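Recap from last week: sequence in, structure out.
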Amino acid sequence: MRLADALRFRIRALSGRRLEREMDREMALHVEMAAERLVGEGMPADEALRQARVAFGGRQRFREETRDQVRSRALDELRQDLRYAVRTFRKTPAFTATVILTLALGIGATTVIFSVTDNVVLRALPYANADRLVSVQILSDRLKNATSTWPPNAAHYLAWKGECTMCDGIAAIRTAAFTLSGAGDPARLSMLRVSDNLLAMLGARAEVGRLFAAGDDRPGNERAVVISDALWRQQFGARDDIVGRTITLDDAPWTVIGVVAPEFRMPRGTQLGEFSRLPDRTDAYVPLALTQHERTTAGEHDYAVIALAKRGVAPSAVRGQLDAISAAYATELRDDAPSRSVVAPLQKQVVGSVGRPLVLLLAAVCAMLLIMCVNLASLFLARASARGREAAVRVALGAGRGRLIRQALAETVLLSCVGGCIGVALSRWGVRVLVAIAPTDLPRLGEVHVDARVLAVAVLVSVVAGLAFGFVPALRLSDTAPGDVLKEGSRGASDGRSASRARSWLIASQVGLSALLLVTAGLFLRSFVRVINAERGFTEEHVLAFNVSLPTSQYKTRDLRNAFYEEALRRVSALPGVTAAGLTNGLPLEGETWVESIWRQSDDAAPQHHDVDANFRLVSPSYFALLGVRTLSGRLFTDADRGTSRVVLSENTARSLWPGENAIGKLARLGGTDSVYEVIGIVANVRTTGLEREGSLTVYTPYWERGYSPTILLRTKGDPASLATPARAVFRALAPAVPVSRVRTINQIVSGLVAQRRFELVLIAVFAVTALLTASIGIYGIVTHSLGRRAKEISVRIALGALPNHVRVLVLGEVLRPVAVGLVGGMAASLMIGRAIAGLLFEVNPADAATLVSVALILPAVAALACWVPVRRATRLDAAEALRAG
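Predicted structure tokens:
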């Protein structure tokens, strides 16, 4: 027989019925041939057929030998087990549907959370050579009061780029904003100034035209621009002739050289460092083209730096060389104090602080799935007890223990795989929902999807879940002794001790895992409440904010810009529903803006001993009242302060400079200049970088001293968002070429800051409540089954004079003992887990007494409630009727 024919025969043989028919035809042919030979020898036909059949022997033996030759017996037994399982489940549709739905929800939720964790945390960044990319920041002793890490300046970047031999490339990024005009209404674009090697180093490709090449960021070549796919389509209609076209940015001509492909995404927000704030959406890229001022200025720590380490070079080695370069170039860098580089894999830097919460969510959903498996194990354990007679008959007929275990596991794995298929189908919808409710600053959110890798994990989870909840019932079923079943199997007999112990451990496991999830959810809830109620230093209700950028070609002087802002504030203040208007160069909670040194004038000879680095805010006199910032002492700015050098300090700044003294009337020097400023007021601390951090040291100066692109603030009587359109109209009438951008309310800023905590809390709370409900349903099912098996025993007790209440207390005590064991174990585990998640909590002790006590009260109460209904029903049965039924 040829190989192809042999394979074809074996494949056809996998169909059991076809194999049986072929074997029957083959044996019948042999018998007929033998009978014909005997007839030819003179034997009568009937006798010849009988003799041929006797000579051929038992057909069943030949069937078994043929099956063993064509395929393994294990495969045949598996097919039989699966067919038997399908027939069994058809007889119990409600039970089957319950198990499948439970598994679908558990496996679906696990698949959803794993897909998010996998795409955000586990997968490599979608950049070329992602494993070699590192971010570079600095630690500076001079800036120790401002932050732990700081972006490099241009001098650092140039020194590293020229001398680093452990890197195949070093690229720099600086944020920029340009006003696009001549293509419809003026639009404020969020842009990046980048070194000419950045896009190529990250593996970006051009959809149209080309990207930057070597030499494009030299002074004189800086009028080239690469635009994003979104800008190309929205502003230019995806025109094919975009390459070479001249567009107007800040009243200057720029030439479009290419369009970056839509799949390319730059890191955003604070993903490259707390003070390297990149736009959430990058509209275009322009060459870095460092000016002479940028190259030689010691300050301006405004550059995000990415390096491509050589193959086999660790980040620690890169850090060592960069530190050596910085030390060698200390004079050129004009560092007042030594600075050290902080080199971290770009993957770790981008994922940032969301990695641990997502892993925690994955652990929580796995715990929920495990509780569901324990619940299903209890159901199948009860089912195994009910099938004791069936198992006894199979054992009596010669079935071995392994055969019974395989059959039981085949049933559970089959159900688990069906539930897994439904769960995967649900997970596709679940991923869309999760992405919709996830915080917008969650890194790599747009990459989350269900792919082959996630599907493979879902299949693995389905099989493991089936084995997990089927293992104990399978052992219980395989341990059946026919004699014991005959003794215990009469109607109304109670289960043996082994079954009771198994049920107790299942109850304890469910309660313990539920306690762990409930404590975790409680800790996150307490943290969320603390964050929401944290003292901000200002009031956020009814405040609208938007940015305004004046074209420098029209408003060249500071006086022209100030006149524009004052007229704009006068007009928007007159809008119906506006109670106050003001401006600032930075909003609370949106991060640092301009950080400089401030020191006491009296210590001019040794300023380093009494200086601090503070965040400078340029504000209008109405700013403090508009945001409800409390004045603690002194006074605030007025128009009478024009032409004077006066500042208002935050409370922590005044305390840092003049500890134990009254700072009002003191003199201070700002920003390394010779200007001396008088302190006229002290205001409350305002949180600047987030709700979970104390307010930065802040110095407030009047807006009219410097020119900048401010944020306009409006306090309104009603919904602040309703004033956005009228405010735009005011600026359009005042200056049509001035774009209004980033319209938002302060409430939206606060909501965005708590979005990640809210997201984590909602998911963990959902998993915890689901686990609690699942555990309560499981306890209810176990108790109901157990009491059903003990109906005769309970009836005898009542018939002999036991009071129903005494019997109820006895039964409840038996059930609540494993509940207590599980609760203690869950509490102990939660204390250990609490230490691991302490960094994710805000002003909450991982061993928070209120949370532990609450869970210790809730879980036993829920367990007792789940037990009470079946216990009460069992003890209300008529004793005589129960004994007759037993």
